[in-house]
Specification:
The protein is of the alpha/beta class and about 260 residues long. It folds into 2 domains: about 130 residues, Response regulator (Rossmann fold); about 100 residues, LytTr DNA-binding domain (OB fold (Dihydrolipoamide Acetyltransferase, E2P)). It has 8 helices and 15 strands.
Amino acid sequence: MDPIRTLVVDDEPLARRRIAQLLADQPGFAIVGECGTGAEAVAALSHGPAVDLVFLDVQMPDFNGLQVLQQLPAQPLPLVVFVTAYDQYTLQAFEAHAVDYLLKPLHPDRFTRCLTHVRQRVSQVAAPAWEGLVQALPAPPVAFSTQLLVKQPGRFYFVPVEQVHYLEATGNYVTVHVPGATHQLRATLTQLARQLDPARFLRIHRSLIVNTTHIKELRPWTHGEYLLTLHDGTHLTSARSCNEGIQQFLRQFVS
């Protein structure tokens, strides 16, 4: 029997290495590629060599595992084993359509049982239909940052996001405003916006993101803008280009 051609997709090199090590102890599997991003996985599965099995990380910086599958052409998929560090997803839905669902850290005995399921499915030639898999899987929730890492000469420390009043783009940095202090992060505001929960952080200007829990008052201002007053007395002015997001934020309070 030909070896089961396997693709390993995970943004963490150590996680990919761990899967490779566990597969090396099992006969009948051959790793044909590794991907560190969702985009690489889409390219490999769409245009690369044929693959029988994919170990697919649920959470990655660009696409999550489900989004990877959604971007593939409508064709029979390889068998899929989802791998994640989070256990809050609807496991039953994943297990009903994927071969298995593994939690990190990966344990050898559990991994061996997973490969038993894979061999059974390969022998049955029963890879799941692509459309049924995508429709049945719930979109996994995004894991947003709970802390921001501040780097200073000789030390690193963390700022809980609930303490952040607002973030302001300043040149090549973002200034993080917290009670009685400011911190600078070498990043763009767009990069930080991807890490922050949009249910709590609202972009009001191309250079401003505000923590909505610290908004005391919001009133229409000149030229279609809004004036926001925070609980500490800080005043921020929005841009008209962000009005749709602000109005959507306000609608949640209207019954």
